[in-house]
Hints:
This protein is an alpha+beta fold. The protein is built from 11 helices and 42 strands.
Amino acid sequence: xxxxxxxxLALAFMSLNAQSAELSLPLAKLMRSPGPIELxxxxxxxxxxxxxxxxxxxxxxxxxxxxxSSNALVAERSQLRVQVNRVTVxxxxxxxxxTKRIETVSIPPELxxxxxxxxxxxxxxxxxxxxxxxYASKELWTEIDPARSRVVLEYAASPPPLSLxxxxxxxxxxxxxxQAALLYPNPLDEADLIAGGLIAQGIALRSEYAPFGxxxxxxxxxxxxxxxRLAWPKEQDAVLIGARERLAPYLDPQLLAxxxxxxxxxxxxxxxxxxxxxxxxxxxxxxxxxxxxxxxLLRFPLPDAHETVIAKVDFAPFLPYQALPALLPGHTxxxxxxxxxxxxxQGLDPEPLELEFFLxxxxxAPEDAEAVFWLHLAYNAGxxxxxxxxxxxNGVFERAIALPETGGAHYRDYRILVPLRSxxxxxNRISFHPHLVPAVSxxxxxxxxxxxxxxxxxxxxxxxPAFSHAARLPDxxxxxxxxxxxxxxxxxxxxxxxxLDRSPDTILAxxxxxxxxxxxxxxxxxxxxxxxxxxxxxxxLIVIGGQVxxxxxxxxxxxxxxxxxxxxxxxxxxxxxxPQPWWQRWQRRLFPTEARLLPRQVKVQQTGGLGExxxxxxxxxxxxxxxxxxxxLAEGPIYPAVQDLTRPERWAQIQGDLxxxxxxxxxxxxxxxxxxxxxxxxxxxxxxxxxxAHHPWQWLAAALLAGFALAWGLYRGLKRYKKRHHPDAEEVxx
Length: 734
């Protein structure tokens, strides 16, 4: 649940000044999925988590709640209660004549602590005072509107602790948005690009799912007290990056003398309480880069000091996919290894039991390959025979587990077979939803919900089938889900960022994009190369540019072409069946398959351009087969568009091989129009399976040839045997 909580502040309104600020937070931003909050039956509840950053001192808080309830409720016995961290702060009768209500309640600031605070809504609902009633009657409901309901916080910023062990409080994932100014002495060179990219990745890794962004500015000296002689933007934390000699105008001599190697130091802004400066330096450009890598890796509360000199960073290369970390083919994992701890659920429809794991984005196996779940579970006596546990994969129903024994049961190694194709590339969420029904129920019957219990144990196991690695590219959905293929190596080896210009806007866009990939990877990408010149060697490229009028020769395979003053684009024009030669028609008779419909496009060349739109396009490298180019392009500033695209709700929409979007719009537009190619590291057997799965007629031809060769070999062998051992024997006619 918590991994989704930082989404709650992405679009919240915030006004900030030196004394206090106010945040208005819709409840919808605290929810995993959209939709109203529904409280049903005689008793029901719903809980949210309200994050409060460590740097905030909450002065006041209030909840504005808009809700509706059934007009069949009896007010004397029906109420809605609100609790904060299990303390009741408000309760209202549910009046049948006032079905739509707006209520405001103050929340004592002392109830809200730094971290995640539980906000719980509980409803008791009845439709009669004197007669017995059905527990789950359809008339028993209350509905909260999370889009119009909100929490309003007034707070003041407090100085964060000046300790490298507390960097999580500086770049706090519970902040409305993590925003940092990256300051450089002029000029900015390619070594600075690498160090700045690692700093951006380190900030993004700490933000988890919270929005993040950066500003790039030239460092300006300013005399003042303390070791820092630098002016930086107010109301922003800042990072000063550069080798020791280049930072001499901004740091006092005593601090410069302490920079004897890769250096990290955290300092307070004497002008603006609550703001901090992180100094990333070293004696050489290589040491600055090492310090930046150390910053990206220091996500454990050590060292507990405001500065440190890094002696060495051992960042050994990973095996493919293991930085993510992805599960290995043919292996068995306990649920405990996947982060699940033994847990129980109680009630009619309790919260689901969930676990997550990461599947390689290019996993390929035969169609009949199956993953096996070996469940260790128990359920209590007193359940009706139609009780069940619903198993969902990524929110989609997959299987049901019957709980038929009214006396309860304990299952060990309860086997569930799941087709591997039901799992998706990248992150998968498996959820078990208990639906428990008491053995005795009905009107005028005391409903005993205490025995409604089920437990799932952490020694349950998941066994994956053997699979290989092969994928069809370009596919931006694989990039959005798992950074494929740019995260294969785990450290960015074989990846080069090609910047079409040297503007701060383009540099920030590159840092933002790499920070997003690092967040998917869970680790920084120190081996990624940067450059302003067109690369010549084999590499997977990321091309970024704003103010683009004409594209370089690398884009000859791109479905989008910009050649000033013309733009060429393939517009969708319905669907068409691909032409079928005679052998494919015979193939369909021998191997019945689903009819294929391909999108039909019409190429239009025109003088109109992208305008306010930005484009994300992916295609095969024209000079190196099986190498991918992914480009982010705009005719205006590119960084605001890239920052908008990395918002979680926007990122989840990416697919196809060509995406257009406009900053601030709710949806993006995509197509799959480029020429596909295949890439992978399949072992020989699965490589053949993968090939023949897409070309079954070739399998038939190979089988016929193999059969003919075998028959011919047997014929020749038998003829030689006869000639050698029975030369005088005559053949007998049948």
